[in-house]
Amino acid sequence: MKGPHRPACGLAVVLSSGILIGHFLPLELFFWLVASSLFILLFLFRPRTWPVYAGIFCLGAALIHVAHPPSMDILAGWRGELRQVLYRYLDDTEAGTMAAIVLGDRRAIPKEINMIFRHTGTGHILVIAGLHMAMMALMVVFILKLIRIPRAWQVFLSIFLILMYAVLTGGPVPVVRAAVMAAVLLASSGAGFESDALNSLGLAALILLLMNAGDFFDASFQLSFAAVFAIIVLYIPLEKRLSFCPRWLAAALSVSTAAWIGITPFQIWHFGTIAPVALIANLFVVPLLELTVALGVGLVLAGLGLPGLAWSLAGCLKAVFNLMVVVAFWFSRIPYGYIQLWQVHRF
Predict the structure, then answer these.
(1) Which of 131, 165, 167, 340 has its CA 20 to 30 A from that of 173?
(2) Which domain covers residue 276, as residue numbers?
(3) Cα 325 from chain centre
């Protein structure tokens, strides 16, 4: 039986291959790359499409030699204003961490907080990624449904606000990947088409690598895409094997296990560490994170003009945030939950 057609995945793989090979070859050998790739791809792809793949392959080999594009952080001023709201209603430790979780500003994360979450394999909560963007998308869609505007406008505004949020955070790799995937899924749903998660992931990779081919060698890029790829591929098989558990527990364990399997090889390669405790820690930390993100977004918005509501949200946020830290700290104390295999000095 013929599988689903995933053109974005194919293009992303070919572009990545070109970037990888181009990284180890000087640009002077580019014409040799063109000739060899045309010959190879002639036998790997259908005759009608191989010239396109060959061109993408060579483009990747050339892009890796292009200088890193300048920063396009055009909403840094707005992010700064929202950051000040957090410091107005929270203490420095809470505000610095919440600025990372909600606004993508990691400059003021306390070292102790960073180590606690890193040692429990839950450091991903300090980086805006798929979970954060999924929650933002759900909140936006829920609010727009309450307004009762036409469905087409709901989809358009949802995509616009999600992309604006990605720009507001400065556009780091995990955020752009999650934003593109969310936009594709929303657009497909709005148009009545069944979207393919792997193809959406491939499209996100394609866009990011065309913007900056050097991201291919970045730890954040590799960890982000590896985690999502593993969840897409392994979630259903793992959930079936855990069918003896309650459905909610099987789903949570499947996501946690799949993500851990996906990121562990890259975590070992880049940092020389492995965190087995993450398989269980995520089950307790992630639900608290969801509530933390919702309260944090509500606080930064209410803090712009509704001080009474902002103080109420800040009180709730303090309680949930500190509970999340305490839970993570407890898991960080479990023997052999975090193992340093060797010291990595490349970074």
Answers:
(1) 340
(2) 76-340
(3) 21
User: What tokens were used for 85?
Assistant: 């709201």
- Determine contact, residues 218/246, Cβ cutoff 8 Å: no
Q: Quick one: 201 and 93 in the same domain?
A: yes
**DSSP secondary structure letters along 267-325:** HHHHHSEE-TTHHHHHHHHHHHHHHHHHHHHHHHHHTTT-HHHHHHHHHHHHHHHHHHH
- Same domain as 169, residue 55: no
- Contacting residues for 226 by C-beta, under 8 A, at least 6 apart: 262, 263, 265, 266
Q: In the chain, what are the helix, strand and coil shares in percent, each to the nearest 5?
A: 75, 0, 25
Query: By the 8 A CB rule, do 98 and 311 touch?
Result: no
Q: Are 128 and 104 in contact (CB under 8 A)?
A: yes
Distance from C-alpha of 129 to C-alpha of 137, rounded to nearest angstrom = 12
Mean pLDDT in residue range 54-64? 76
pTM confidence score: 0.80
pLDDT tens digits, residue range 191-218? 656 667 788 888 888 888 888 888 888 8
pLDDT digits (tens, 9 = 90+) for 115-164: 898 888 888 778 777 667 777 777 777 777 777 777 777 778 888 888 88
Tokens of 20: 């990888």
Distance CA 268, CA 274 (A): 6
Task: Tell me if 323 sits within 8 A of 288, measured CB to CB.
Answer: yes
Task: Supply 132's token pair.
Answer: 């954060």
> How long is the chain?
347
Q: Sorting pLDDT into bands at 50, 70 and 90, what band is 1?
A: very low
Residue 343, beta-bridge partner list: none
